Amino acid sequence: MIWIYIISALVMMIVSLKVFTIFFSGAFLNLIMRFIHSNLETVKMKLFDEAISNIKNTKKNSGNLEILELGIGTGENFRHFPKGSNDLNVSKLVVSKAEEMVGIESNSMDVVVHTFILCSVDDNKKVMNEIYRILKSDGVCIFMEHSVDLKKKPKKYIQSIIGPLITDCKFINMEKVLSSGPYDHLELKFYQINKFWMTLVNPIIYGYGLKKIK
Ligand SMILES: C[S@@+](CC[C@H](N)C(=O)[O-])C[C@H]1O[C@@H](n2cnc3c(N)ncnc32)[C@H](O)[C@@H]1O
């Protein structure tokens, strides 16, 4: 009998959370994303520095960089864009799915940035192929995503079942997804946000992929 009460309470909780997230969709998601990003500032600073210096070294590019961020959200990554780009020049705002960026020319971007979007897109393989297409040779894609936790079975189960119900995003094996991308060189690292209530978001996977065509 007690199990019926517990299961009903859980179902009610999930349904109310779902209704809540739909009702407050934009504002609620933005708030959560800001909390998540506030725990990742140091990691992102190092990530952007390493990835950008990498392409600057190879291209000896001291001029402006063409940067495209996919699904910018509330612009949490702008402060990590290369020094000197404080006076960010927004040259184009493209409204399209990342799977098909028809408005963006091939080989036109020095840097592509995406954080926490591969869990929401319809086809992550198509997105990565599109990124590769629009990157210039020696260009870099900087990313940070979250993954299903393969090391902790109960958590993996909760993420797979409850995650999509309350957040509308898929909990997938992001290491496998990113490793199967088209990049010619890939750097991948993991990070855990050390806060109990962010357990479901962990592990974070981040790094960069380079396009190198001779
Ligand atoms: C969880 S939010 C992350 C926002 C932001 N990148 C951040 O890190 O705060 C997911 C984002 O993915 C975007 N998104 C979902 N499907 C997409 C698609 N097919 N192509 C491009 N962006 C997509 C949404 O518009 C939303 O901004």
From TrEMBL:
Keywords: Membrane, Methyltransferase, Transferase, Transmembrane, Transmembrane helix
Domain of life: Eukaryota
GO function terms (MF aspect): S-adenosylmethionine-dependent methyltransferase activity
Regions that span the bilayer: 6-36
GO biological processes: methylation
Domain spans labelled Methyltransferase type: 91-143
Gene3D superfamilies referenced in this protein's UniProt entry, alphabetically: Vaccinia Virus protein VP39
Protein name per UniProt: Methyltransferase 7A
